[in-house]
Amino acid sequence: MPKTYLVNDKTPFDNDITHLVNDYHDLVNGKHHLVSDKPHLANDYHDLVDDKTPLVNDYTHLVNDKPDLANDSTPFGRVCRRRGRAAGLLYFEFTFSMIRPLLRLLGRPAALLAAAVLLTACPDKKPAATETEAPAETPLRPAPAFNADSAYAYIAKQVSFGPRVPNTPAHQRCGDWLVSEFRRRGLTVQEQPFTAMAFDGTMLRGRNIIARFAPQAARRVALFAHWDTRPFADKDKQQPNAALDGAIDGASGVAVLLEMARQLAAQPDSLTPKVGVDFILFDAEDYGYDSSTQADKANQLAGQGVESWCLGSQHWAKNLVPPGYKPEYGILLDMVGAKGARFSREQLSREKAGDVVGKIWNVAYRLGYSDYFIAQDIGSITDDHVFTNQAGVRTVDIIDHVPYGDEFFPPYHHTVQDNMSMVDRNTLKAVGQTVLTTLYQE
User: Fold this and answer.
1) Closest by CA position to 164, among listed 172, 176, 155
2) Are 42 and 49 in contact (CB under 8 A)?
3) How confident is the model at residue 411 (pLDDT cuts 50, 70, 90)?
4) Which of 281, 295, 361, 436 is most buried per CB count within 10 Å?
5) β-pair partners for 212
6) What is the largest CA-CA distance in the chain?
7) What is the C-alpha separation between 426 and 342, in angstroms, rounded?
8) Structural domains of the chain sorted by starting position, each given as residue range(s) with its CATH number in brackets
9) Mean pLDDT across the stretch 40-52?
10) DSSP labels, 296-339
11) What span, in angstroms and rounded, lies between the C-alpha atoms of 151 and 157?
12) Which pTM value belongs to this model?
């Protein structure tokens, strides 16, 4: 903290506060007028204007006759409250010495106004007891610490299988591992196999994976992600036909859910959330038709009433597992692990589950993650939450989807750059801790 020096003896302010109080005790006790007791103050300032005497008289009047104006919190007022009124007056003296040249130019009215603002901010008494303060916000209920290193390892494990494109051995092996990992944590797991035609006519063999934590709980929350990867990097200028690792678009959302399941399973019953949690992984989300990169191809699903994206969630929405499933709300995680990721409030999420959006973003803010969960609204996007909302599950989409120049997706999206080099543990921590803590507020 910088030291403030006295005008005459240059003694550090913090060390000589006793001297200040003694020097101005007559003023503090209200026995004499400021100018008669402390003429050096008035003499120091009375040359602000040509007419010296009226300024001194008005200055004295401000000190003695206007103490009731002192209920605001200017810097002068804060000094008064911390150090006493005498110290505050010294602060006034020092401040006026700094602005005196400007006040000379403005004239006597400006000088009096400045004096009024400074002096009336320093009350002889504390604010009236009738003043009330805003009630403190209820503290967040504690949640387990989300381990970003563990989530990172879960991404690396998925990527190690290779691109998880439906109908490939890598896809089959990764799916088997996901099922076994949830079961290893003690969750109840169901698989939902399905067959769906892709936009290019390929018949895809997919499976959705549903893992239930605390299946006996009546109140439930759904957490969604997709676990497949896009079969071609069609936005990549050099390798548009290459398969991609999908470290962010695919593996990151699944990794966050796996780490959350691990944390919940490790808690004693007394420290688990008051809701059951269903981890639902959709397949064949990313085998869709992009007219901006695939205009030379035909979308064979056009006109059939079938969206080419999100085939797994479309199947689940029409064939709910568990049957009649009605959680309180759902959260979809998509592309939640990249460096520099930003999550804005998507339109359909706001329309269908605005209260949940508010809850999540408020938790993120209180945890210190508002640099990730930004206060920005964006338009709607076609993602798995479109179909979960259609199925009656009010769902929020947390996705790295803000304007990046002319693009609404980050540069790595659907390119071979979507690999482990893009993964950021800080982003994983921000998302995982925010969602995990949100669950514990129920």
Assistant:
1) 172
2) no
3) very high
4) 281
5) 188, 278
6) 98
7) 12
8) 17-119 (no CATH), 148-440 (3.40.630.10)
9) 39
10) TS--TTTTTT--SS-HHHHHHHHS-SSTT---SEEEEEES--BT
11) 10
12) 0.71
